[in-house]
Design goal:
By secondary structure, the chain is an alpha/beta fold. It contains 32 helices and 24 strands. This is ATP-binding cassette domain-containing protein.
Length: 834
Amino acid sequence: MQQSDASAQRPVMSLDGIGKSFSGVPALTDVSLTIHAGEVHALLGENGAGKSTLMNVATGSLIPDSGTITVGDETFSSLTPTQATALGIAIVHQHPAVLPDLTVLENLRVALPSSVFAGRPAADVARELLGRVRLNVHLADRVENLSVAQKHLLEIAKALAVHPKVLVLDEPTAPLGSEAVAMLFDLVAEWTAEGTAIVYITHRMAEVRQLAQRVSVLRDGHVARADADISDVTDDELLSLIVGRRLASAFPDKHPANDDAPNLVIEHLSAEGVHDVSFSAKPGEIIGIAGVVGNGQEELMRALAGLAPHEGSVVIDGQELSAKALLSSSGYMPADRHHEGLIMRLTVRENAAIAALKRFRKGPGLSKRAELDLVTEQLRSLAVKAPSLDAEVSALSGGNQQKVVMARTVLARPKLVLAHEPTQGVDVGARAELYRIIREISAQGTPVIVASSDAKELEGLCDRVIVLSRGQVVADLVGDDIQEDRMVHTAVSSKTETLTAVNARPGGTSRLSRFLQGDYAPVLLLGVVIIGLAGYILGLNDKYLNAFNVTSVLTLTTALGFIALGQTMALLLGGIDMSVGPLAGMLVVIASFYFSGGAQVASMLLGLAAMILVSIATGLVNGLLIRYLKFTAIAATLAVYFALQGFSFILRPTPGGNIDTAVSDVIQFKVFGMIPVAFLLLLVCTAGLEFALKKSIWGWKLRATGSDEANARRVGVKINRTVISAYIFASLLTFLGALMLMAQLGVGDASQGVNYTLTSVTAVVLGGTSLFGGRGTFVGSLLGALLLTQVLNAMFFLKLDQSWQYYLQGLMILVAAVVYSVVRARVKNRVAAS
């Protein structure tokens, strides 16, 4: 018994003297934290206090500048995500570390160790994991189509899969409805009973009291209170430690009742997900939207923001506004600030100012001074903590990002303010500031509507609360009737059979929807176009499918096809490889010195070795420039483009070095009298790459990197290795294309090959691969190459001028881009509304 007690008291994990700075600004200074098995340890602090940074250090996402991490009997200066997982440390991030372009199953496979799926079908394991958190979605659904709550539950399922010794929950209840929160609390009780240590980060004091045994507080990157027994500290003391001062009431005074005429009147509004909603508000009143999460709150807010069509009327200050007018005159603060509320690559200043550019107009341009003055004043009033106005908004904590969204809304001076989960992930001190700003906006005569899953927030802030159930108004509460228990009771007891966000789409999307949103819809479309074009030309000229023409088309397709496969590698990463064309040309130039007439076998082997080495070196240089010297993909590969082109002309200022005809004959050898063996090799290579892309760890990591690099790193993908290896493979595939080009040209010519750069990009885009990375197919790229070659060949039969080649290529890209984007957008909207 004594040994058992000693073991129970031994920390399962300790962080000692952790320090971390970003751009010279300290985020953590000498922070220590001790975590015991079987306990919930609450970690509190304002936004930007360092909580998430500390936990990212603990789980390997960040490398600390100083300090040590002790897990059991082992001590480390830093961890990687893979090491942390192996040691039994898991985290559920405040912003889920999911890959939007991958399916639910692929997200699980890329994030979890292979041992989780050992001995059983992966789909069965995945369904079991999702079942533990009651997440009812299809395994083939793209994660980008899941709701915020569903993404959080997927993140929790990933954490549970590794049976962690230490589990970090970072604001886990922020997007969840009451049912999902209750389920999570039950799971927390189960985990701690089994000995799991839980670090619980939250801004909700009630959750701390309900779950935690110990509590630590961070303030400005320092420890304000460490390892305190929760029963030894009061809520007031905790709040004082968090903000460094005593807080008055979080909610400002409500608007006094009066007989003023309403300045907002909504009558019989219906849209996808909401039906016949009517309510009104007087000047100075704040309207709240309550209900179980997933019952039409978001759909109502989006309709009022002009982001979705609606029926019925919306009248503001006596003027009825259409959806188009609402889009330009409303200020919408979405719940998902990362994907809808902010432009993560822009700066804090740019995000805050972007909706209010008219206020900064000075003649034909903008006044930088006016912009700086107004943005600085607004951000200061919200106490936004940022390294500078020109820091990327992605570098801010979640709460400070939310304040930037609020600042942008205020600066735009909208006619209607719509705040959906305005304080999600925001600390108690910042909440009071946000409530004050919302009340001030309302007091100035601007109608304000707040949708929140926190009934207590609606009770304290709002003058009128509309309770929704299944998209319909089931209660309109005013004055003393606005009470938390009444809102909850009305929502859950409604006869409209409430839904939860978790199961808003039971079983996920339909098979047709998944196909139309998937990577193979463009492939099918390309196949139909290729067959249709062939049938049309054959109807005009019966020689179109003779052996000579088929051989010509397939031979030209093979050269372009291999290069397009390489280009696909780069585009799947969200990059591009401008060097493939000049590389193909230079490889042919190199070959012209080793494969000339009468060359010995040893010379040819040496030439092949030289071509392969140059290909590997080119891909390696591209990858190193992008990953270590921080070049953009287009800048890095364009620099290599010019270098290769220059070297080619140095080696062959004029065409020369005839390729041995015997070598060309071998490369262009045909079977069945018209099908090049090289084309069959292209088919085999495409099939192998496609299988690896969709079914292997390598393919998942490649697509994960292009889908969301930051989240891919969080789940353990080695980004540098993935990117560099992909560019090397791209160059090696270009080498195979260069062999075909060598046989076709028969001579070393430095001016050849350059056109393959843009042609390969065209083929890949036609095949449906996204220019933003994360989604695409090698099969589509092959068909894109075949279609381009077919179009070029068709001009001869149709007796068209060569300039039509460029017209048709441009038209095909335009049509493909429009068709793919429109189809995916419509399907996605249909899924979101279902």
